[in-house]
């Protein structure tokens, strides 16, 4: 059975690019456009992994990551923050919020797929 990945970004272009990167892996893809929607989708869809932007409306990726990790229904889901925010304090905030890994945009496809495989086991 295909692993389910939740892609979270307010940019349709980024979501399309992430879908293209993941296409070779045959993941089942679900999406959300902001942090609030990400938390709700994580609860309802129970994805195997979440790729989430930081800078989004309604609830940032940092806030959403914290909410997902504090929720007993979703706390087990690994999260990779995928963001343009590559400065040290943003990375520290990301890891402090509970993310499992951090990738900066523009995304290196091989790096991202390697991190996904590592978190999912040789999927």
Describe the structure.
With 123 residues, the chain is of the alpha/beta class. It contains five helices and five strands, in the order E-H-E-H-E-H-E-H-E-H. The protein has a five-stranded parallel beta sheet with strand order 2-1-3-4-5, with helices on both faces. Strand 4 (79-83), helix 4 (88-96) and strand 5 form a beta-alpha-beta unit. Helix 2 (35-45) packs parallel to helix 3.
Outline the fold blueprint.
Blueprint (H helix, E strand, L loop, with lengths): L3 E5 L3 H11 L5 E5 L2 H11 L3 E4 L8 H10 L8 E5 L4 H9 L4 E4 L4 H12 L3
Parallel strand pairs: 1-2, 1-3, 3-4, 4-5
Helix pairs in contact: 2-3
Helix content class: 40-55%
Strand content: 15-25%
Residue-averaged pLDDT: 94
Radius of gyration: 13 Å
Coarse morphology: globular
Beta-strand segment tally: 5
By secondary-structure content and strand pairing, the structural class works out as alpha/beta
């Amino acid at each position: 059975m295909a692993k389910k990945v939740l892609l979270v970004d307010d940019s349709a272009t980024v979501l399309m690019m992430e879908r293209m990167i993941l296409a070779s892996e045959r993941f089942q893809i679900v999406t959300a456009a902001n942090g609030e929607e990400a938390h709700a989708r994580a609860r309802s869809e129970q994805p195997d992994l979440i790729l989430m932007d930081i800078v989004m409306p309604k609830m940032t990726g940092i806030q959403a990551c914290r909410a997902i990790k504090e929720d007993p229904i979703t706390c087990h889901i690994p999260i990779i923050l995928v963001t343009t925010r590559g400065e040290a304090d943003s990375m520290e905030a990301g890891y402090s919020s509970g993310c499992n890994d951090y990738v900066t945009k523009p995304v290196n496809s091989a790096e991202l797929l390697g991190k996904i495989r590592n978190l999912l086991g040789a999927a």
